[in-house]
């Protein structure tokens, strides 16, 4: 092949790739644009009450939604929204300080990601100090740690390790933000080491994840935490990092499998591989986000995955009701070795487990 023909073919390929990306991830009609949807959900969140654990501490789903609203505000340069989100946080330094989660559980510690994200906007040292305390305490073994927690720490893992799939968002998100703030490789190394261990322990040959090793069901939102955690980590992980190939392999294997289980409607079901189960919005939004990021970063073939992401987004939008609540969100769900348990889970409107990944998708659709 001569040089001129090669360059011509290369130009055609580049045009086709760009067209596929634009065709799939832009050009939405009025009412379904990521700008409109993100604005509806972000302002709805900023005006809402705190979501609390049993009335005591800020819930991780609220933190996830807050982070998503910040990402959307930054993409749209909405300074008013950014200020409102800062103002919503400010009482945590004073009268709402008792609502801060204790630093003794994986779901609680991820609160630090929010403080670190706000630090990157404001450079206010109060955010940095608070956020790093949550990140560091994931590796600081408390005196009352049990033998299992001490054993994980002795192997170089977080003492909060428990091999639940949602940990691969809860641990990696705060370590990732700490890395972005400090540039200290220890934070990204921690996140990568954890991710590899969880992949080796929990990912099935088909790329998906059981809810737990003793619960052989592919629960959508559970798998969604892995689907989101991997690309978010890969975006920050240095190209020469020793764990990058393993994490990328896990991510690509999962994405390929998810694509085969996407329903004709564009949604994914409460149990991913059960065609008779109901379409669930939080898991669908998480998988859609993973597709969008993969296409944006060039990890996924745009011709295959951009249309799938677009189809999912257009299917998701009608599930937002007139009060700007995402509907058909499975409530918080513990593991149970009973298929009917998953089928019968209550479905909430406005549950922040669903509001959050919708905002992540809106921000991701608005560009890198």
Topology:
Elements (H helix, E strand, L loop, with lengths): L2 H23 L8 H13 L5 E2 L3 E2 L1 H17 L2 H11 L16 H4 L2 H11 L2 H13 L9 H8 L12 H16 L2 H18 L17 H17 L7 H18 L19 H17 L4 H15 L12 E2 L8 H5 L3 E2 L3 H14 L3
Q: Could you walk me through the main structural features you see in this protein, from its secondary elements to its overall organization?
A:
The protein has 368 residues and is mainly α. The chain has a single domain, classed as Glycosyltransferase. It is built from 16 helices and 4 strands. The chain has helices at 3-25, 34-46, 60-76, 79-89, 106-109, 112-122, 125-137, 147-154, 167-182, 185-202, 220-236, 244-261, 281-297, 302-316, 339-343, 352-365; strands at 52-53, 57-58, 329-330, 347-348. The strands form 2 sheets. A two-stranded antiparallel sheet has the order 1-2. Strands 3-4 form a two-stranded antiparallel sheet. Strand 1 and strand 2 (57-58) form a beta hairpin. Helix 2 (34-46) packs antiparallel against helix 16. The longest helix is centred in the N-terminal third of the chain and has 23 residues, at 3-25. The two termini are 35 Å apart. The model has no long low-confidence stretch (mean pLDDT 94). Substrate binds at residue 166.
């Amino acid at each position: 092949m001569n040089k001129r023909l090669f360059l011509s073919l290369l130009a055609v390929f580049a045009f086709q790739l760009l067209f596929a990306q634009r065709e799939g991830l832009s050009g939405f009609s009025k009412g379904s644009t990521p700008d409109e949807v993100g604005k509806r959900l972000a302002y709805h969140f900023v005006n809402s009450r705190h979501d609390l654990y049993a009335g005591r501490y800020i819930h991780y789903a609220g933190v996830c939604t807050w982070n998503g609203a910040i990402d959307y505000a930054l993409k749209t340069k909405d300074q008013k929204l950014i200020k409102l989100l800062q103002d919503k946080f400010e009482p945590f330094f004073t009268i709402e300080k008792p609502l801060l989660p204790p630093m003794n559980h994986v779901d609680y510690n991820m609160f630090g990601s929010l403080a670190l994200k706000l630090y990157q906007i404001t450079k206010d040292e109060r955010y940095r100090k608070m956020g790093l305390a949550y990140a560091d305490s994931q590796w600081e073994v408390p005196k009352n740690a049990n033998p299992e927690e001490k054993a994980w720490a002795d192997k170089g893992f977080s003492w909060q390790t428990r091999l639940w799939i949602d940990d691969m968002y809860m641990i990696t998100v705060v370590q990732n933000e700490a890395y972005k703030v400090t540039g200290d490789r220890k934070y990204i190394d921690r996140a990568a080491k954890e991710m590899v261990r969880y992949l080796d322990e929990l990912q099935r040959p088909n790329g998906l994840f059981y809810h737990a090793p003793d619960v052989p069901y592919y629960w959508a939102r559970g798998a969604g935490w892995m689907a989101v955690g991997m690309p978010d980590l890969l975006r920050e992980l240095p190209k020469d990092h020793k764990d990058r190939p393993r994490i990328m392999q896990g991510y690509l294997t999962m994405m390929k499998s998810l694509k085969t289980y996407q329903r004709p409607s564009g949604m994914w079901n409460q149990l991913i591989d059960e065609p008779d189960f109901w379409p669930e919005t939080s898991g669908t939004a998480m998988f859609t986000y993973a597709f969008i990021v993969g296409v944006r970063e060039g990890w996924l073939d745009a011709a295959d995955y951009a249309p799938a992401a677009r189809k999912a987004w257009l299917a998701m939008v009608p599930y937002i009701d007139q009060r700007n609540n995402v509907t058909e969100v499975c409530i918080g769900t513990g593991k149970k070795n009973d298929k009917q348990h998953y089928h019968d889970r209550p479905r909430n409107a406005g549950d922040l487990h669903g509001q959050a990944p919708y905002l992540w998708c809106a921000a991701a659709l608005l560009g890198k």
